[in-house]
Amino acid sequence: MDPIIQISGLSKTYESGFQALKQLDLSIRRGEILALLGPNGAGKTTLISIICGLVNASSGQVLVDGHDTVRDYRAARQLIGLVPQELTNNMFDTVWATLKLSRGLFGKRPDAVHLERVLRDLSLWDKRDERIMHLSGGMKRRVLIAKALAHEPDVLFLDEPTAGVDVELRRDMWALVRRLRDQGVTIILTTHYIEEAEEMADRIGVIRQGELMLVEDKQVLMQRLGSKQLSVHLQQPLREIPTALADLPLSLTDAGYQLVYTYDAHAERSGIATLLRLLGDAGIEYKDLHSSQSSLEDIFVELVHGEQEPT
Ligand SMILES: Nc1ncnc2c1ncn2[C@@H]1O[C@H](COP(=O)(O)OP(=O)(O)OP(=O)(O)O)[C@@H](O)[C@H]1O
């Protein structure tokens, strides 16, 4: 793995005493699309704000392409484009002036060709001479994205990019994100929408109460989703899985009273008939059989709402 961002032991306690991030470690791969899922207040915006140098961490370190975001702030920040949740444009400026200024702030030489491309990609070219205050809400959000791309960042953060936007803008944004990824830009997006993570991401991370509960390749997660489980509740507990069953994908739980068999939900043969025959041959009796299939939604709900911390 070639990480572009390395986060280690990152914690944040706000002045109120609230701990928003707890010892978070994460490596973000160069060129990937990483979706960070999590409920309201999980710490996603805090994490992004620390990486972008807008909020100070209480402890821990963030390196962006090897540059420490505190000691080497300018070099690190220059590599990053941030599309925040809230509108932060100067309403009196024109679209073109906003982009030009933003590019200049990052010390990049003027490049009208690049800015034109960005504006055309976001269907904003016709609006380039308009003052931002005269644009619709959707157009203002497009300007936020254009502004984040004006200095040609290597990493783009999108904080809940599609919350409350219409279908057309959502589709345009997804297409743009894919194009940027094809150009080698690393993209991190936060979202509440599981479908968005499924549709867009190479990897999915789940944050809950300031902790990274899981970060996994989407394909691996989807494979796990494609698997089904059959639970066999036994009459008598087993101390271990008998040798006759050793080749099957089985695990023993519930103090030896339950055998869990995992199989591919889409396979032609589940192998259940073989399992039951082998159980019979080995003289293992069971009371009950129960099958289940999990979805990304289940995994997410379980992770996020699973064990609530005592309040
Ligand atoms: N400046 C602050 N002072 C005190 N607490 C804060 C501050 N900013 C955020 N918090 C708290 O930190 C927690 C994490 O907030 P954060 O905005 O990072 O969550 P989030 O995952 O981005 O949520 P959302 O999905 O709602 O945007 C929340 O409980 C929030 O109330």
TrEMBL record:
<protein>
    <submittedName>
        <fullName>ABC-2 type transport system ATP-binding protein</fullName>
    </submittedName>
</protein>
<dbReference type="InterPro" id="IPR003593">
    <property type="entry name" value="AAA+_ATPase"/>
</dbReference>
<keyword id="KW-0067">ATP-binding</keyword>
<feature type="domain" description="ABC transporter">
    <location>
        <begin position="5"/>
        <end position="234"/>
    </location>
</feature>
<keyword id="KW-0813">Transport</keyword>
<dbReference type="InterPro" id="IPR050763">
    <property type="entry name" value="ABC_transporter_ATP-binding"/>
</dbReference>
<dbReference type="GO" id="GO:0005524">
    <property type="term" value="F:ATP binding"/>
</dbReference>
<dbReference type="Pfam" id="PF00005">
    <property type="entry name" value="ABC_tran"/>
</dbReference>
<dbReference type="InterPro" id="IPR027417">
    <property type="entry name" value="P-loop_NTPase"/>
</dbReference>
<dbReference type="GO" id="GO:0016887">
    <property type="term" value="F:ATP hydrolysis activity"/>
</dbReference>
<dbReference type="InterPro" id="IPR003439">
    <property type="entry name" value="ABC_transporter-like_ATP-bd"/>
</dbReference>
<keyword id="KW-0547">Nucleotide-binding</keyword>
<dbReference type="InterPro" id="IPR017871">
    <property type="entry name" value="ABC_transporter-like_CS"/>
</dbReference>
